[in-house]
Design a protein that fits this description.
The protein is α/β, with parallel strands linked by helices. The protein has 11 helices and 10 strands. The protein binds S-adenosylmethionine (SAM), 6-(5-methyl-2-OXO-imidazolidin-4-yl)-hexanoic acid (DTB) and iron/sulfur cluster.
Length: about 325
Amino acid sequence: MDGVRTDWTREEVAALFALPFNELLWQAHSVHRQHFDPAEVQISTLLSIKTGGCPEDCGYCPQSVHFSTGLGPEALMPLEDVLAHARKARARGATRFCMGAAYRNPKPSQLARITEMVAAVHELGLETCATLGMLDEAQARELKAAGLDYYNHNLDTSPAHYPNVISTRTYQDRLDTLSAVREAGLKVCCGGIIGLGEGPEDRIDLLHTLATLPAHPESVPVNQLVQVQGTPLAGADAVDPLDFVRVIAVARILMPRSRVRLSAGRKQMSDEMQALCFFAGANSLFYGEQLLTTPNPAADRDRALLSRLGARPATA
Ligand code: SAM
Ligand code: DTB
Ligand code: SF4
């Protein structure tokens, strides 16, 4: 299978994490160059099309009704507003537009409106991605038929740590949605969050789970927790930047053909840390001032960073 393996053992994953830092980075960068142009970075833009009021209790998330974060529930955004954001993202060089909704799972009337948005964004020539919570296969097929390219659904952390972070759904629920999305022929965007109070074993288990799915996710977002006041995880221990880089490097080695996305948390990272992440194999990012509800680095700052690194946006 041209060097792509889905039979990694946990011991192999643990051994990669245990490598000396430079050895790990050298291996990861070598794998990266075999599969990608190391100067290319894929650019995605996020839009929250339905903010707040989510019934789930993910301990990191400012949009849960269970926590007081000052974010009130908003209605699903009108189609024209979504299109205006998508046009702006396209004009700024994004090749993928990701629409996020604070749902446990979409209801039929909501999905009907969202399929219209997907079709309209697809018409603009952008790759489309959505993240709407749990889906069954019929819903995934509906989205695929409308022109959806990717579905984002993160495993977030290890199976063992998951119940410490979220009580309103199980790890198996997440895996079931991922398999429904695959069965419907959508590309999968699936990753996790570093900084949820997990230990080294949980990071090994998260990456082992991702790399042994029946097929690797085409996109692997690696988020650093954005701590939001009012959420249970505000005040969690900060992540050692070098440990974050290790996660990127191990993800690159395990899933050599996937786009590894340096995702939430970049505003809290130095340029040097981000440069190390790109060397370690990250080759995608979220671009634009806002993630879903929290700030992202300013677009001109990111343009300057890519230019200082001699990197260029990938074409779709
Ligand atoms: N409600 C849907 C779901 O959870 O699948 C879609 C939207 S949800 C906000 C998308 C992803 O954003 C989550 O799975 C999580 O990985 C990430 N996320 C949410 N809040 C975050 C935070 N404070 N820091 C980093 N990542 C976060
Ligand atoms: C992903 O892995 N990260 C994005 C996207 N997929 C949907 C979301 C990050 C959200 C960060 C917190 C916020 O802005 O609300
Ligand atoms: Fe809801 Fe998604 Fe936030 Fe969890 S991460 S509370 S499911 S919006």
